[in-house]
Amino acid sequence: MTEKPIRVLVAGLGNMGRSHALAYHNNPGFEIVGLVNRSTPELAAELQGYTIHPDFTAALAALKPDLCSINTYSDSHADYAVAAFEAGCDVFVEKPLATTVADAERVVAAARKAGRKLVIGYILRHHPSWMKLIEEARKLGPPYVFRMNLNQQSSGPTWATHKSLMRTTSPIVDCGVHYVDVMCQITDARAVEVRGMGLRMSDEIAADMYNYGHLQVLFEDGSVGWYEAGWGPMISETAFFVKDVMSPRGAVSIVMDANAKSDDIDTHTKTSVIRLHTAETGPDGKFIQPDQDMTMEGEPGHQALCDLEQAFMLTAIREDLDLDRHMADAVASLRICLAADESVRTGQPVRL
Length: 352
Hints:
This protein is an alpha/beta fold. The chain has helices at 15-26, 56-63, 77-86, 101-114, 128-140, 156-165, 171-174, 176-187, 302-318, 324-346, and strands at residues 6-11, 30-36, 52-53, 67-70, 90-94, 118-121, 145-150, 152-153, 191-199, 212-219, 224-232, 241-247, 250-255, 273-278, 292-295, 350-351.
């Protein structure tokens, strides 16, 4: 039995919006009814036949889609998502879900009231290598130490994109939600305290914004973690990609290709090698097992991951998946990162 394609309106045609639009275009389960962007960006050949509308609200009313894909700047996410739910649509929204916890909770409440699906763009949840990292880390057992960062030495168009993002969202919130979400999936414990620090290292951003940030989070089970994110032409490429989880029983880490560049979007998700370390020692005090390297050959690139995300969106709608945990996790990771942002600005730790 052939089901009708889901009619989708794609709002926002930055890096992620263009990739999601390609995913819809190439998936027969979807039909793009329109694109929304204030300007006319350069698009892949496959997308050039679609009409670009300048206003989301007008396009939503005129086109009456089944699904709205919201990939605009973070400060519009909540209002666009709520409007889409009130129009009877399902919603995919890029991370972060909103710029405040109250707005994130408002979006979740609107999804539940409308009885529609809400999927948030946590791309690592669809990455087989990251799923393996989480699985192996959970085998170690708590308490954990999480060490994670993603610094990006950006220039030219990439720095321009980062400056645009920082009009509304700091790096430790915009990127941090991904990696804090990974921490939360591994420990399953509640975060109880968050600390943050940050520094404005460029006169090209607002006086109240910072392009380097570092957060620390303490969990109820005793686990602790840190995440670091910096954007800009002054950022070092030394140890820019650290993804490391330790516990009393050992460690699991991503070993990055030494030639990788920090502003390569595929670098942000590719794992290269997952290294497993077991802490067990014998009577002589030496390790019983050597470290095990798991080579993640054939892992999906950025576009393939976006394809997987939208395949999940399609399944969620057609198979009526229960997304309660998905939505709650998105709010939880955002709450932690926004608490870190508050700590940066006040100089005080935040109890959750």
